[in-house]
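Researcher: We're teaching a course module on how sequence relates to structure. For the next exercise, students receive a sequence and then see the predicted structure as tokens, so they can try to spot secondary structure elements on their own. Here is the exercise chain.
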Amino acid sequence: MKGMMKKMELNYIKNGDYYIPNLKLEEQENQYIINKYGLLKLDWLKKNKKIFYTELLMAGKLNKYLFSVGNEAKTMVENIVKSYVENDKELTEKTKEINQMEWVQKMNNYRNRAEEFVLKTLIYI
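Model: And here is the predicted structure for the students to work with:
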């Protein structure tokens, strides 16, 4: 049956002249550690997808969602950087020993490019 909603029983608290619903979030059993990509997604959801954010929050699925998005983003960044390094013939351990600053510059460049791609394709959508 389409559009069928779960019936909820609401309790109200009187506050002055008004009755306000007494809403409580369910206790979440699993605690997830959310990385920086998950926090960036959280901030973006709050600002741009308020309804989706509220639905996840009320269903108790927000932390799990942010945890999975964060892990996926982290894995994508690592894989992209790894592919950049594998395709760069000049980036070797010998280069690292001879010219450390150049090696660090390239690695930072690869990481920044990978993060920019992941932010545009996974976090800010």
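Model: If you want an answer key for the exercise: The chain has one domain: 32-123. The mean pLDDT is 89.
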